Amino acid sequence: MSAARVITTIKAEPRFGPEGMELWRLTGLRPGRTPAWFRKIIDRDFDGNFHADWFDHHAQDGETLISEPYGICHDDLRDILAFADKYALNVSISAITFHFPTRTVALTFIPRGHQ
Predict the structure, then answer these.
(1) Which distant-in-sequence residues (6+ apart) come within 8 Å of 38 by Cβ?
(2) What are the Cα distances from residue 8, in Å, to 25, 28, 52?
């Protein structure tokens, strides 16, 4: 008997209840959470408050921070790249999102040297 592997993307919201949110977490995402490295940066350099326009609908996937804003402009791109450079992060931008597919973009940040 062979093992089955299920791959899916599910749009989940808190109103789905605990069962719905658990389905979303099967993808590895932890909505509303941030990796320890990000919390250290925010506590140390931003007094615990981080309000960048591009930081919206965030989630954690292991050591990866994901932010899914509704859009990013020229100034946001500059800020994202400056943030990534200052804190030695790799950043990528994708149209594949969980929060609101086709309306948000996914920004993924991971410390350089992590996979």
Answers:
(1) 65, 109
(2) 11, 11, 30
61-94-11 Cα angle (round to 5) = 60
Is the pLDDT score of 19 beyond 50?
no
Per-residue confidence (pLDDT) for residue 36, from 0 to 100: 94
DSSP conformational letter for 98: S
Residue 108 CA to residue 115 CA, distance in Å, equals 12
pLDDT, tens digit, 9 for 90 and up, residues 54-69: 999 898 988 999 999 9
Other residues' Cβ atoms within 10 Å of the Cβ of residue 8: 8
Q: 70-102: per-residue pLDDT in tens?
A: 989 999 999 999 999 999 999 999 988 877 778
Give residue limits of the domains in the chain: 30-111
